[in-house]
Amino acid sequence: MSERAETAARGIHLAGASGSAGERRPSWAQIRAALAADRAHWHRRGHGSATLRRGYHAVWLYRLSRYSHERGWRMAAWLLWLVNGWWTGADIPPSSRIAGGLFLPYPHGAVIAGAVGHDVAFGLQASIGGLLKEPDQDIGGGPGLPVLGDGVVLEAGAIVLGAVLVADRARIGPRTIILKDVQIGETVMPQPWRPLPGRGAAA
Predict the structure, then answer these.
(1) Are 84 and 65 in contact (CB under 8 A)?
(2) Is the pTM of this model over 0.85?
(3) Cβ atoms within 10 A of the Cβ of 89, count?
(4) Are 116 and 10 in contact (CB under 8 A)?
(5) What pLDDT, in 10s, does the model give residues 18-60?
(6) Which structural domains are found in the chain, ordered by start?
(7) Residue 115's beta-bridge partner residues?
(8) Confidence band for 182, pLDDT divided at 50, 70 and 90
(9) How far, rounded to the nearest angstrom, does the alpha carbon of residue 125 sit from its chain's CA centroid?
(10) Shortest CA distance to 58 belongs to which of 43, 38, 75, 28?
């Protein structure tokens, strides 16, 4: 098995979505443990109590939605998804697989569709999702969706699109669009900014 496939498979397992029916149904204790990890990550980053923050509400509602989805209560799962979008502005489908320790301080405009490992941080309007050109390729996040490893950081406006793997401890810079795999511990930044001549600039 390739390193990419192994990392993707580990990401699925961490997110509580392995193959057998028993493992696919997380217990309420596992949901509570994931929420505790979410709060711990929030505290480590110095943002104080998470309980009253809308970003934590987005994660909390996602976890309830995911629990309902895996228990087969699909209507309840998608209703919670709608409530989450209305209350927090985040789009986190219940089919997404997210391990504990998600840090999402600014949920409005964030989209998280795919598989996410432990202790991942999303900046302002950072998002992951699919591309229409490859709807059938599945590396573990779902058809056409990405997989993020453990400890990944997406800065403000960063976007990961398609069936790509962002390996453990990678850092994606602000406003960077990722369309191919990122290696372990790699930092990816956008193209250097450069001024363009204005309309009144001298030739």
Answers:
(1) yes
(2) no
(3) 15
(4) no
(5) 333 344 567 888 899 999 999 999 988 877 777 889 999 999 9
(6) 3-188 (2.160.10.10)
(7) 97, 147
(8) very high
(9) 11
(10) 38
